[in-house]
């Protein structure tokens, strides 16, 4: 059976790895992050937690519904009743990781061969497949396999191919170049008392493109049920604000600008800690129509992730599942 190297231990990569491992393949997943999950990201803040990437997800396809039910039974996810805030916006049930969204990734990674802290720097071809060069701490490592699956955001995938001198066909390159992501600045706050955010603790403040309201989304992670006895707040800046300030050298200076936009929910004197994270690639706003791209190459090479198909958490899952099921790597 062909061996498989997979770049990216986000939801898409972990889903593909689980499916291919289930089929009997030897799969190695490499991720540059300290842990698994990618944009399913949760940070510790005081004695609490804050999700700073994906905030919640819906499950509309039977395959994702089935996984969601399984995770709910295992205590990994629970429903967040956001329809209480806006029934028009939240027509489907919304789910969250019970110990943060990252908990889903940890659950899915169980039993898989995942190497974190391992940044892929070069892709080269060998006689039958692929050789990957990666850096892990101060070491340079190489991995080889018959099949390569890349689930990192398309702009990063294109940069990696270019840096490696890997020539893609014009059609494959054009398909990857058409995928676009919006940036997002995320601020996490630890409070010394409850916030004034109304139940259920999640609020879309603008549609995301409003130039005059820097904060598009606020979440109270205690009300969300992931940060017991410790109020933490997540703020997501609007696309317009994030785009405007993406390359500001002093990211810390953005925090007061965002806090000033939410003082009616978050009293400034209640804030005891604050952190900011810049997502250069947050949501895929222009996506490839299919759940993955099988590139024209001398050995099997697949590109997938949330830039393919439906986008968002469920789209990333469906992309990974499709790569595992339909990529004909048997
Ligand atoms: C701020 C924000 C808010 C969001 N809100 C929501 C939401 O509420 N609901 C929703 O459904 N979706 C939301 N999303 C989108 C959702 O998080 C993503 O669609 C989904 O998690 C993407 O999964 P993925 O596996 O495709 O990619 P990722 O999770 O990005 O996985 C890719 C992985 O590749 C790794 N990687 C990158 N380069 C390398 C390299 N050179 N070597 C090794 N590893 C590498 C990264 O570390 C990462 O772990 C949000 C995203 C962000 C950032």
UniProtKB/TrEMBL annotation:
One of its GO terms (molecular function) is oxidoreductase activity. It comes from the Bacteria. InterPro entries: Amino_oxidase, FAD/NAD-bd_sf. Transmembrane segments: none annotated. Residues 89-321 form the Amine oxidase domain. Signal peptide: none annotated. Pfam families: Amino_oxidase, NAD_binding_8. SUPFAM superfamilies: FAD/NAD(P)-binding domain (SSF51905). This is FAD-dependent oxidoreductase. It comes from Fibrella aquatilis.
């Amino acid at each position: 059976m062909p061996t498989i190297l997979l770049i990216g231990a986000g939801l898409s990569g972990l889903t593909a790895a689980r499916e291919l491992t289930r089929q009997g393949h030897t799969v190695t997943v490499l991720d540059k992050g300290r842990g698994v999950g990618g944009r399913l990201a949760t940070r510790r803040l005081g004695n609490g937690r804050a999700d700073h990437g994906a905030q919640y997800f819906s499950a509309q396809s039977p395959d994702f519904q089935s996984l969601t039910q399984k995770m709910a039974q295992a205590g990994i996810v629970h429903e967040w009743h956001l329809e209480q805030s806006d029934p028009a916006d939240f027509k489907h049930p919304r789910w969250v990781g019970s110990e943060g969204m990252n908990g889903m990734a940890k659950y899915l990674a169980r039993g898989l061969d995942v190497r974190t802290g391992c940044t892929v720097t070069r892709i080269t071809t060998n006689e039958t497949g692929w050789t990957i060069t990666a850096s892990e701490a101060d070491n340079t490592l190489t991995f080889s396999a018959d099949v390569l699956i890349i689930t990192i955001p398309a702009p990063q995938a294109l940069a990696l191919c270019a840096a490696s001198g890997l020539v893609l066909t014009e059609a494959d390159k054009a398909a990857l170049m058409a995928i676009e992501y919006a940036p997002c600045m995320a601020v996490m706050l630890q409070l010394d008392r409850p916030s004034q955010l109304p139940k259920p603790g999640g609020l879309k403040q603008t549609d995301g493109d409003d130039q005059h309201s820097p904060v598009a989304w606020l979440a109270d992670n205690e009300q969300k049920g992931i940060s017991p006895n410790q109020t933490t707040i997540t703020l997501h800046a609007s696309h317009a604000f994030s785009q405007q300030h993406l390359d500001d050298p002093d990211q810390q200076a953005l925090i007061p600008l965002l806090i000033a936009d939410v003082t009616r929910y978050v009293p400034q004197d209640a804030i005891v800690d604050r952190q900011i994270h810049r997502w250069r690639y947050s949501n895929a706003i222009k996506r490839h129509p299919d759940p993955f791209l099988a590139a024209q190459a001398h050995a099997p090479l697949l590109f997938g992730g949330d830039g393919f198909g439906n986008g968002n958490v469920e789209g990333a899952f469906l992309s990974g599942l499709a790569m595992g099921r339909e990529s004909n790597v048997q």
